[in-house]
Amino acid sequence: MGRTIYTTEVWHSGLNKHRIFRGSDKYVVERKANLQLKAWDEMWERKKATEMARYNAQQAKKDKEIKKSIAAEQTNEAQTIINDIQNILNFSLEKDHKITDWNKIKDNSKFIEPTPILELFEEPKESEYRYQPKLNFLDWLFPSRKDKKLKDAHDFFIEDHNKWKIKKEEVERQYNLDLSKWEKGREDFYNNQKRANDSLDVIRKGLNDNDPEAILKYIDLIFSRSQYPDFCPKEYEIDYFPDTKILLIEYLLPSIDDTPRLKEVIYIQSNDIFKEKYLSDTVFNKMYDDMLYKLTLRCIFEIFQSDLINAIDSVIFNGLVEGVDKSTGIETTNCLLSIHVNKNEFMAIKLENVEPKKCFIKFKGIGSSKLHDMTPIAPIMKISRDDARFISAYDVASSLDESVNIAAMDWQDFEHLIREIFEKEFQQNGGEVKITRASRDAGVDAIAFDPDPIRGGKIVVQAKRYVNTVGVAAVRDLYGTVINEGATKGILVTTSNYGSDAHEFARGKPITLLNGNHLLHLLEKHGYKAKIDLKEAKRILSDQEIN
Fold first, then answer.
1. Both 416 and 334 in a single domain?
2. Residue 342 binned pLDDT confidence (cut-offs 50, 70, 90)
């Protein structure tokens, strides 16, 4: 009698192992196989752990290399910024700031927004295979079956065709909207481009005529083209005195807190941390003072070098710095240095070889010996806000009550009311508002001066005592006035409302539109009550014209 042999075959895909067990006892064979599988699993787990440890070690090494690289990049950036600060004057000396070819600085760029594309699905055709009924032998024997299949196929086509028509109409409607928006964007782009280029022609012509306003705009253009490090505010206010050919500039210099002082970044492997190293106070303070002197000389140099028509005989430069008064904790803007320089004397020196502070002292500049101490000084001359157009204001708001319809108010009283209410608004931040000569809704009605160096500046305010909707023409006029005045912003106030075209034109521009409701809210904010009744105002104004 023969023996019975049991066989069991086992595999392990991870280790790529294979083995066959044989024996006369079935349970013994199975036990051997199971023990082998268990041993392989344990071996596989150890192998995976070893490989994972090796991978983690390699990854940790890579991570450390990456972190070393990051530290090196940050160090390089810090050193680049320090070098930029140290070379802030030399960088400008290497440039030619004069504008000799006005066509080169004009914007001749093309509108690059891609034209919308009309993408339509192909129109379904009833002759297509999917709309053909699947007829068989029985359908030919029984016409009613055939007719039903034909009808079902036709209905299927009609349903698909209707869906296609609806989709086509949706796509075409969206395309027309997109195309209209694109055309409007292109039109606005080229209109704005033309307006900007035309303004350059106006400046150029004004320079030839020695127009003071053109000279100011030209200097503003020179400064706007000059490149400075990101931490420099590049904010300034300029004035020009044609009788003496003096240009006065009040320039906001970088604050000590905004000036970078990072020197190096080191990655410490043992602690897996980045450590930042900064310039010592002594080194940083010297660099900061040196930078302020260099920026002062740089601005003066750029003004004189760009003056091709010899409109400027001398420059008065006031360097302003924002900071917190340590004694009060209040943010202030102080003048740290002031200097009056003659053009011929200044352009005769070799600026690339001078020591900035000694050069500043040579021209009898005023400033503390340690600018970083933020000690304020009295400037040689301050910018005056006097304007021949400004007139004395009179009180209107105190006579208001809920019975007064400001939409029917005398137009001069209305302009003075706007001046008065905006004066109260701006006075909260130390600003002032001055009304101009009677304009009867033409030109500038008031000028606001907001001293805030970041969001403030010169603001044009126009008042429109209208009973009808204000159209886009009034907003265009305001925008033109903002540009001509060199203002930072324009505010249009009316007793009525604005049309959609007016809002569309104002979008994205430094223009604020205030309607009748806004005006009433502003009056109420400052403790005054009034009303706006456009129908009543139309009747009153019409009667006044008849009489």
1. no
2. very high
